[in-house]
Fold this sequence. Notes:
The structure is a homodimer.
Chain A: H1 5-13, E1 28-37, H2 38-50, E2 57-60, E3 84-88, E4 91-94, E5 107-113, H3 116-124, H4 130-133, E6 140-146, E7 156-164, H5 166-176, E8 188-189, E9 216-221, H6 225-233, E10 238-241, E11 247-252, H7 253-256
Amino acid sequence: MTETGLTVRRLARSGTLRGPTSGLAPGYVQANLVCVPRELAYDFLLFCQRNPRPCPLLEVTEVGSPEPVGVAAGSDLRTDVPGYGVWHHGERVAAPETLHDHWRDDLVSFLLGCSFTFETALIRAGLPVRHVEEGRNVPMYRTNRPCRPAGVFHGPMVVSMRPMSPDQAVRASVICARYPRAHGSPIHLGDPAALGIRDLDRPDYGDAVTIRPGEIPVFWACGVTPQAVAQATRPALMLTHKPGHMFLTDLLDSDLEGLG
Amino acid sequence: MTETGLTVRRLARSGTLRGPTSGLAPGYVQANLVCVPRELAYDFLLFCQRNPRPCPLLEVTEVGSPEPVGVAAGSDLRTDVPGYGVWHHGERVAAPETLHDHWRDDLVSFLLGCSFTFETALIRAGLPVRHVEEGRNVPMYRTNRPCRPAGVFHGPMVVSMRPMSPDQAVRASVICARYPRAHGSPIHLGDPAALGIRDLDRPDYGDAVTIRPGEIPVFWACGVTPQAVAQATRPALMLTHKPGHMFLTDLLDSDLEGLG
């Protein structure tokens, strides 16, 4: 069976899939999930507009609808993601398998582009994606770079990291620039301290990966940023995906190419 | 004196400049203006997110503030544009020289990218931009292509048109793809009837231009789209720029390159 966005969503809905989605359904666009009440939706939409590198918008649902009609008609955001987070006043109070017990009719859902899109392009170009090689979740770190605030929302940018040789990092930068809606090119490479990251072996989300001799860490803006923003902002309610456990859309990576 | 975004804004503020801005301050990003009351701001922001080709967002102001701090600190959207439109219930009721008599403390202002950004790149590549050559405003047309609705907002996409030979159109498509926040590559070329345009000599906005033998019309999504949306949607109040009379930012065209 050819794996598609739809087949992965079905595996999540049936409970068969509860792990990270990196490497699944190659060529299909994966997405970060954020749901907030309507009264916070303008501020969050503006936050995404002002921070397009970590929060590139793919879709915003109608109020109360769990179906992102523009990118995955017939899907259900409450069941089709393999893992969720429930945030109350900045604390993650639950990590449920579905959102049925947490859904409200005033929720607006946001789907943000994900680095797994450009990873497919990197792998096709023969570039290393270490966490895929090692069967782990991608390492993610909170940084000292503040996002541009919008309304009640503020907080630090989160980055994902992939180790590469310097020449591979240059090639990856060119390739990723084709996908501005999947975080685009790296925001930093080399010294982690420049981003306020103390220890690459202790990521704030996901798993550490091996950095080989001659490699440097390469950092991309990450769609887990809204979860760090929830911790900083303490909104009464935010629902999210579990880091690395993404929503699969029906969009093809090529649909995003060059698209702003 | 070198012309910059700032010097053009000053010419508008002083009343010296009241004409179209195409070709002014080459290399500085120009922007379409839309102001709506806060109660409509979420719907309009969502409309832009769902229609990034005609409405690529560069900046959204704080409620009531006429200063787009992210792209032109110290500027004033009420005075720094060479011409305005005031829309009440879908009718353009005034075309004032400033917005002072129409400003309200509940207005949110949106700046959208403009094709004048890619025109600079086209001219540098030796490609024709006929309306600049002929000293006219760019021709713009309402189409039969509906925008994706958001809340109260719906309506047809507006396009701008530049005549070129087919091989020039191909080169222009590649160049414009570098600027997704300035409408990106064309949405159509050739037969105007495919967009529901009956007569290229009678644009809905701006001026007609000469189409030479061997040339075809090439069409780009246009930031005047919100004005057609105002006519279709009839919101109580929308303030805009006058078509072709843009707000000059401090951003450089290169700042937008590849940026989604």
